[in-house]
Design a protein that fits this description.
Length: about 200
């Protein structure tokens, strides 16, 4: 007797098409692209406390827009800044000789100071490196069920200016929504991994 009644329904179908190479290839492709990734994702899933999980989507969206996101690990407050802007945002000249500020100026400086610099436990999330973004695009292309679209995207990624050409193709294709969902999921998983690693380091 089969361990699950659905197996009794699946096996006769496989038996019926066992001599049809095209149908078997379609079944195999479905299993490899739809079922196997889900199983791998379940095996590799990272569980973080619910209070941090609630922040994952917002943090992922911020870094995908090119922002650096700082997280207060104690209060769960976040603060975001455009990449490469923070060094100019807060400049401390107190080490320069002859540069003395009165109490009022010091108080004003503290008000302008980024909040995350005053936090005790801060976790920072930066936009992905180009190589990481490229890997996400490549993974998306490889999981497509349309061989022609898959080959086209992989070819694009091997040409000059892969990011621009990839986005141009996606935005004019039927895969636009699927790409955004795939990319968002990848960014969210990236954020979870950072939080998970940080929490484990501090235990």
């Amino acid at each position: 007797m089969s361990p699950h009644p659905l197996v009794d329904k699946i096996l006769p179908i496989l038996s019926a098409v066992r001599d049809d190479k095209e149908k078997l290839q379609r079944i195999l492709h479905f299993l490899e692209t739809e079922i196997l990734p889900e199983l791998e994702e379940e095996d590799d899933s990272i569980a973080i406390p619910p209070k941090f999980e609630a922040l994952v989507r917002d943090i992922a969206q911020n870094i995908s827009c090119g922002l650096i996101c700082h997280l207060n690990m104690d209060t769960l407050e976040t603060e975001e800044y455009p990449q490469n802007s923070e060094m100019d945002f807060w400049i401390d000249d107190e080490d320069e000789e002859g540069d003395e500020e009165d109490d009022e100026d010091e108080e004003d400086g503290e008000e302008d100071m980024p909040k995350y610099l005053q936090w005790k436990k801060v976790l920072s999330f930066e936009p992905l490196e180009s190589s990481e973004s490229f890997r996400i695009m490549e993974n998306f292309a490889r999981q497509l069920d349309n061989a022609k679209a898959q080959n086209t995207l992989l070819d694009i990624l091997n040409r000059r200016k892969p990011f621009a050409h990839f986005n141009s193709y996606i935005h004019n294709s039927t895969y636009k929504e699927a790409w955004f969902a795939f990319k968002n999921n990848a960014y969210e998983q990236h954020v979870r991994e950072i939080i998970y690693a940080t929490l484990n380091e501090r235990e």
